[in-house]
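The freezer alarm interrupted the setup, so I double-checked each line after restarting. Inputs confirmed:
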Amino acid sequence: MEFFGGTSCLAERYPRYPPGLHISESGSEDASGARPRILVVDDERLLADTTAAILRRAGFNAKTAYEGFGALEVTASFRPNYLLTDIMMPGMNGVDLAVAIKKMYPGTKILLFSGQAGITDILEGSKAEGFEFPLLAKPVHPSKLLEGLRSLQND
Amino acid sequence: MTQTGIPIGVVGKTTVLTDASKNFLLAIIASSDDAIISKDLNGIISTWNEGARRVFGYEPEEIIGQPILRLIPEDLHHEEDDILANIRAGKRIDHFETTRVRKNGERFPISVTISPIRDESGTIIGASKIARDISDRRRADENRFRLAAIVDSADDAIIGKDLNGIITSWNAGAQRLFGYQGEEIIGQSILRLIPENLRHEEAEILRKIRAGEKIEHYETTRVSKSGDLREVSITISPIRNIGGEVVGASKIARDISDRKKVERLAIEAEKIATTGRMAAAIAHEINNPLASVLNLIFLVRQGGLSKEDTQSYLATAESELERVSHIARQTLGYYRDTGAPSEVHLRDLMDNVLSVYKSKLLSHKIVVDAKYNDLREIKVHAGEIVQVFSNVVSNAIDAMPHEGRLTISIAPLGKAEDGGGLQIAVTDSGIGIRREDLGRVFEPFFTTKGNLGTGIGLWVARQLVERHGGRISLSSSTRPDDSGTNVTVYLPFSSQSKLTQANGSDSGTEAR
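Predicted 3D structure, all chains:
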């Protein structure tokens, strides 16, 4: 299903990431050890960056990746406590990424978010492997997202 | 016939014939095609003519003096007793159809007439037997019966009509399909079966039949006695007489209502599936920017941003919302074009599109070579056709990022009698489309442009063209120095006929 690949957009006329926009990364450098680390993965850069900005303000040490393989690389050095990932991405999809990370770092808490139906097959696949992840539907209000992460914390 | 002086019984009276009369009769017997045999009352053969030799295969010298039973199959030997009893009683047996056996053992059907032979005193002394081989007649009869049985048991309606369209035969299938009994419809005009709005078909059918042409698997609609419409596939063949003249037509009609229903269901199912796929993809395209907008507004509301950042966040949110509305227009908007079609020159629509892309054409260093020959106006939904042209032209521009030539032609096409139409050809000298992608270019959300494409341009173009009863096809080459893509659109002047059953297979792709 190539057209589910999430590669189609109107970037030329309506760029996803306006060149002038700078989403603040302040807070990512200081005293990072004390704060929970979270990796945000979405091929929609603007969404990944704004989500990370919100999480930083909420007290997380947040990093972003824009596709699955890049996310694996970041994970190796960053060792996030949380993974928040989109599902439909070009290359490795979010569920495969989550399964891979869970296998390598079983302690990682994982939250999926997706903007469309048609992912049931992918989720069934991971379920068959014994992995089940909570799922949030896009668009998700930031306060709901923070609530979801908090409930993971209490697991 | 070597023996002479056979007494011949004539209607009960016995007359002694003159020699001349005898010779005359003997000549008739000798030249008869039928087997003429005489036998005595014990069933012993006494004379044997040339016809008998041909039919049964025995020479006179080997059969005369032999019992007649040699000619009768064993299981029918009892017949001979009956025959002899009748003959002894002076009775004649007329056209008795039975089976006899030839010298070579072959059984064959025969019709025999057997009469008693009397002597001068009127005493019965034997029998004459005239036998006709009816194998050929039997075969012809059997063939006719078999054909009649086939016609009668056929599921299809099989109808005969003359050259004036008057029904001359009507089988059981026709009765089932159309509801008329043979006796109420034979002699009536075939027009009774044709819906009023299709009556013109019959004149054309009769014209073809008179010219000796056959009409095969023509799909149309007919009407039954109860007034219900029946979707049928008909095959009509001329019927000729022995001289080869066309004297009528046989018409075989097959009820294809069920098949048509299945086809319609399949198309509906496909439409629903496409709609589902579209909805999923649209959801993805719309939910991402909406999620970003929620995030941006949340960040602004939390405060603590510089005035500059606040402005920038809000501007980004605005452009994301623009993106959402653009996608909505592209995917859902065209369904709203319910306005009446209007008469336009296609050249005007094409020029509109080219002016929209003027700056882009300039920046891509694309030379436009447009040749318009559309003297006639055409009735279309202008907004939809603009969208078709726009999609095709913008694809061509995307295929030529650095420089190239865009060749556009609009010209009449087709014969005047079926209305004709206009053909629009848009050819670029761009990179072309890979052979393996060609089959998918009309699929929704298929794109070869990566992040630059929405993947619905050609798909939407095809829907719109087919709604106008037209066709769109694409050919492409990626050969170095000769690459490029040609998109050809055909729009008929009169689109009513096929508007409802636009056929997807009419639109196609090919590699060049």
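Quick read of the result. The mean pLDDT of chain B is 82.
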